[in-house]
Amino acid sequence: MSVNIQKELGQKIRELRKIKGYSQEKFAERIDIATNTLSSIETGKAFMTAPTLEKILETLNITPAELFEFPQVKTQDEMYSFILNKLEFIKSDTDRLKIMYNLVKSLI
């Protein structure tokens, strides 16, 4: 699965900035960068320096792990393949197969 870390990270920063109630201008001021630089970071067109990253973490009051944690969005084909793979895995396990059968039956 291909990930554009710059874009993902920028989106995460924008999302967290908004949750904390900062405008782009105020946040840029707090982390001591130009507003257009912050805009470029948030759109994935630029990457920040280590000192800027440290200021972002401090201002948002988050850990690096929280910033770099991204949801695993899967395509429809990826989800379907995953399910088929797991079904093959539980095929010989009667108990798990019954659970899956009941789960799928409840969805339809």
What features would you highlight for this structure?
about 110 residues; mainly alpha; 434 Repressor (Amino-terminal Domain); 7 helices
Task: Summarize the structure in words.
With 108 residues, the protein is mainly α. It has helices at residues 5-19, 24-30, 35-42, 50-60, 64-67, 76-90, 94-107. The protein folds into 2 domains: 5-67, 434 Repressor (Amino-terminal Domain), CATH 1.10.260.40; 76-107. Helix content is 69%, strand content 0%. Helix 2 (24-30) packs across helix 3. The two termini are 30 Å apart.
Summed up, what is this model?
By secondary structure, the chain is an all-alpha fold.
Please name the CATH architecture of the largest domain. Orthogonal Bundle
Q: Quick one: overall form? A: elongated
Tally of separate domains: 2
Question: How can the largest sheet be summarized?
Answer: none
Q: How many helix segments? A: 7
Rg from Cα: 21 Å
CATH class of the largest domain: Mainly Alpha
Element-level helix/strand string: HHHHHHH
CATH superfamily of the largest domain: lambda repressor-like DNA-binding domains
Rounded to the nearest angstrom, the distance between the terminal CA atoms is 30 Å
Considering DSSP H and I runs of 4 or more, what fraction of the residues is helical? 55-70%
